[in-house]
Design a protein that fits this description.
This protein is an alpha+beta fold. The chain contains three helices and six strands, in the order βαβαββββα. The chain has one domain.
């Protein structure tokens, strides 16, 4: 699985991130997994041509010592479809910037 991982979180950093995620992303759907919806402007041509598969998401797993962003862009409506694929370069960069911005906003230095 392709992922963007930040490890060696300090306990206080974990708590800040968890509070931020709970407030801004909603409570985790499964254990410590949060889902982040991609805006339409981030969708690739195949995803745009599959409105029945929308919305598209990526998953973040928050652990006590690490945060892991799955780089697979998923559909909430289907398990298998050719529009479900690993993030393209633009989507991958957006995911990384999304997490980096949160870290900057929370004054977390890794």
């Amino acid at each position: 699985m392709k992922q963007y991982i930040i490890d060696e979180l300090r306990p206080q950093d974990y708590q800040k991130i968890k509070e931020y995620f709970d407030k801004n992303l909603g409570m985790p759907k499964i254990n410590s997994i949060y889902w982040v919806e991609l805006s339409d402007y981030l969708l690739n041509d195949i995803q745009i041509s599959h409105p029945e598969c929308k919305p598209f998401y990526f998953a973040i797993e928050l652990g006590q010592k690490q945060i892991s962003c799955e780089l697979l862009i998923r559909s909430q409506n289907k398990i298998r479809c050719n529009c479900i694929n690993y993030a393209d370069e633009r989507q991958r960069n957006w995911v990384i910037n999304f997490i980096d911005t949160i870290f900057n906003d929370l004054n977390i230095i890794i």
